[in-house]
Batch of 2 targets.
Target 1
Amino acid sequence: MPEPDPREPAGSSLHTVQRPLARRRVWDWLLGALAMLLLLVLAGWIIWMRLTQPVGTAAESAPTVAAGNPGAATDPFARPGAPTPPASLSVDEVWLGDVSFEAGALVAAGTPFDDVVAHGVDVTSGPNGLVASYLDVTGTVPYHVVEGELPAGTSVGPAGNGEVRIETALEILGRELVVTAQGAVRVESGRIAVDPTAIDLGGPQWLSELLTEIVRELIVIEHEIEGLPEGLTLRTVDVEDDGFRATLVGTDVRVTG
């Protein structure tokens, strides 16, 4: 056995053995940490791939509304689409899948109806006339038509915010009382109805309040659109500069015949 070199300090051989062991432990720890990091990254990637999907997949898998669905959310009147000819269509009948009609003015039953737009679906023409499985008609009732149903001298026009302005002169006790009112427009039992929301008699406030209920009944408007095919029902009405813009809708409507 070789004798230790007296020039080396005591314990130097022990330090020489321990240094490689310490380096190996550090290297093993680094390899373990790197492996753990790779496992975490791999696990995160797998979870992300399971939770997500390729771009555009959601849009492709989203439910769509069929073209013939009568309850499409974009159509407030449930207008049907993509009809097919009836199996019972005879040789002396003509079938039209979709018909549109526009007219600047229309007169029915002596009453004008302006800027008319009509749309029919599944229309059959034959010996019994023209019948539409679905029909909607939109047009404007001029203010002068409604004025003709009110006391003489009454004027009706737009007041803003969806209301109308009514001005009339009432004869009370041999005197003429000028009344100005605003009214809200609504559909009531298939008619255009206007209920006064504010009444001004041009005098003291207490006088207006005293006579309001008496005057109210005299300026209430209820107008029925006449002359159009039976089966059409008034659905909506809006106030415009030249009159009441009304939309009527019906099913199995006999247009002619």
Note: Residues 118 and 137 are 4 Å apart (CA to CA).
Target 2
Amino acid sequence: IPPEIVNLLEKEQNQDIILGIRPGDFLLGKIDKPEFAHIDGKVYFVEFMGDMTLIHMKVQQDRFIIAVLTEIRIEENDNLTVSFPLQSIHVFHKQTERAMGNLGKF
């Protein structure tokens, strides 16, 4: 967990939070840089939308939608690794769903 989130949790007295990432902020593959995180998951649905493809992915019990602007060959049940910049994480208070900011602003 990035230190910015740890600090936020301490400020919020360890209340539950929701982390959100916009679908277009995901990048295919693993990026080995300290300002990026990655997740591994399984594709459960692919939507071809003309100029973009929406990839629905499961990571344990969580679900993600990744938007890519390229046509890729990916199918249901494929394993997939995606990366995202830590600054793209948006933080919400779980009970109120109030936006608390994003890591790029901490």
Note: Strands lie at 17-20, 27-28, 36-48, 53-59, 62-68, 79-85, 90-93, 99-102.
